[in-house]
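Tutorial, part two.
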Amino acid sequence: MLQISELKKICRKSKEKYHNWWAYSFSRHFSIYFTWFFCHTPITPNQLTFVQIIFAWLGALSLIIWSWHGIIAWIILMQLSFIFDLVDGEVARYKKMSSLFGVVLDSFGHVLINPAVYWSLSLFVYFQTYDIWIIYLTIALSVFLISPSKHALMRGILFLTTKKDNPIYNYENLSKQFPQEYQPPKQRNSLKNRLERFLKVISEFPNDMNIFCILLILTLIFSETFFITTGLIFFSSLIILKEFYFLYQIKKKNLIEKEYLKIYQK
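Running the prediction step on this input gives:
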């Protein structure tokens, strides 16, 4: 029978390849046991990605429907959702079922999970306080959760790939205009860059979800929605400002041309 120790060698990535510290420090220690089970079943990695989405939305519904009694269920189900975000990849590596569609489906799952986190929390606050502004805030946030600035960047790159015959947009002319743009930028450890990286990291799943788990525990202890309300205001403001800042960076640093030249060069 397949041993857990053997499975770890096959399925686990190196520390550098884990996309965040929570996955490496906590979730992977639980995911490997789920992976061991599903490696002995005909269930596919893509099906496990849907399980991840289902767990997240069950957590969201538990908080909306059960209110205070749903807080613990929200925390457990959201953590399970992220654990299964690792399980699908580990099973794919063991069964050699990695695919481009699997990568796309994984991103699709994240797009569906983020609204579940914020909508469930905002509705929880609304049903306790009946402050309608929290709903308006979440509606505005929903637009930015899909990262419109990144979609704009990809559309710009796609536009350049369809205009190769246009002398203005072909590789030769662009590489003359931006001769250094396709080279990786040097990492600087200035206070500004550290702050930018920190704000970027904490506003991404699962780090924002983990912070909300802590805020929900404080909410349960003190029976006060202040903690969740403050968290929603902070993260909503951060995510919206981050999108506008990235749009500014696209213009200022010519990111469309830079990324296009990097892809073309490869």
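The chain has a mean pLDDT of 86. In part three we will examine how such features are distributed along the chain.
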